[in-house]
Write a structure and sequence with these properties.
With about 350 residues, the protein is α/β, with parallel strands linked by helices. About 35% of the residues lie in helices and about 25% in strands. The longest helix has 18 residues, at about 190-205. The chain is globular and about 70 Å long.
């Protein structure tokens, strides 16, 4: 598969009254056609900001994309004019946000909001756009689709509003769908339904997807590749099975140990001690070092680059000055002896 999206050294800053916020720090990665990337990390890790920067949706001021390239199908999105970028949003790259009530206009009907995109990007007339909008609502499981086009957002439940947002995102057959924590505000049952729906539609449309979340359990079901972010940096990235089966960054391990397991040996859940970094202070070393029990002196003084974890596996990368696997194996042997 060829590369669809190539992000190079993306840097985003926010200039506030409290100081400069170092939100995204030299993020680099590539996304292949049809690939699903799960981006995980706690609040403030740079997950959503880096996606908003890709879409040129960073509010300015106070935000500013300081440097970097976002190459999408051979074009650097950061160099396009505002008019050119408007044609990319919705048609070639679509984005679904966490809270559909803040994304949908409360004074316009669902039909008006859906057909606007179809008319702009697909050149449809009102009759064609209404027919396509009804088909999309039906596709995402909303009954009486044609009648519901006349309804307003407040007349839909939270799960139904999110289905509307998915339908709007898919309306122009985008090549890339970015979903920014789209199931966080929903209960577990509805969350499972939305995830299953997205999987079906992804396979049907054969589109690439970036799914942003703080929940490792969600991306385990969806993602081909996992990308873990912390302190505005990518600290681990690789095929989902490898990252879950053989984590090489202590932060990834901490996230996994905080999740309950349904199968295998029961383990005590542990929390990651300490607090997230103050993003107003530029990192001198590994941003996770103050919370990392395995940190070395070098971790506090030098930022580790993303490197392949072992020869012959260039897709599994980790940023760490320590050998986490060797440390865990030593702990296991020590535990067995004692």
């Amino acid at each position: 598969m060829s590369v669809l999206l190539d992000i190079q050294d993306l840097v985003v800053r926010f200039y506030t009254q409290e100081g400069v916020v170092y939100a995204v720090n030299n993020v680099t990665y590539a996304l292949k056609e049809g690939e699903t990337l799960g981006v995980v990390g706690e609040s403030g890790s740079g997950k959503s900001v880096h996606a908003l920067a890709m879409m040129r949706l960073i509010p300015s001021p106070p935000g500013k994309i300081e440097q970097g390239k976002v190459i999408f199908e051979g074009r650097d999105l950061l160099q396009l004019s505002n008019d050119q970028m408007r044609l990319v949003r919705g048609k070639e790259i679509a984005m679904i946000f966490q809270d559909p009530m803040t994304s949908l206009n409360p004074v316009l009907t669902i039909g008006t909001q859906m057909t606007e995109t179809l008319k702009l990007h697909m050149g449809m007339n009102s009759s064609q756009a209404n027919k396509r909008a009804a088909e999309l609502l039906d596709m995402v499981g909303i009954p009486d689709a044609r009648k519901r086009l006349k309804a307003y957002p407040h007349q839909f439940s939270g799960g139904m509003r999110q289905r509307v947002m998915i339908a709007m995102g898919l309306s122009c057959n985008p090549k890339l769908l970015i979903a920014d924590e789209p199931t966080t505000a929903l209960d577990v049952t509805i969350q499972a339904q939305i995830i299953e729906l997205v999987k079906q539609l992804r396979d049907e449309f054969k589109m690439a997807m970036i799914w942003i979340t703080h929940d490792l359990g969600v991306v385990a079901e969806l993602a081909d590749t996992i990308q873990v972010m912390y302190g505005g940096m990518v600290v681990e990235r690789g095929p989902a099975k490898e990252v879950f089966g053989d984590p090489r960054n202590a932060y990834t391990l901490g996230l996994m140990r905080s999740l309950p397991k349904m199968e295998g040996e029961r383990e005590r859940l542990t929390q990651i001690e300490g607090s997230p970094p103050d993003m107003r202070i530029p990192p001198k070393g590994d941003p996770f070092a103050p919370r990392n029990q395995y940190a070395t002196e070098r971790c506090f003084n030098e930022i580790p680059p993303l490197m392949p974890v072992r020869d012959g596996h260039p897709e599994h990368l980790a940023a760490a000055w320590y050998d986490l696997r060797a440390i865990l194996e030593a702990e296991q042997k020590e535990g067995a002896v004692s």
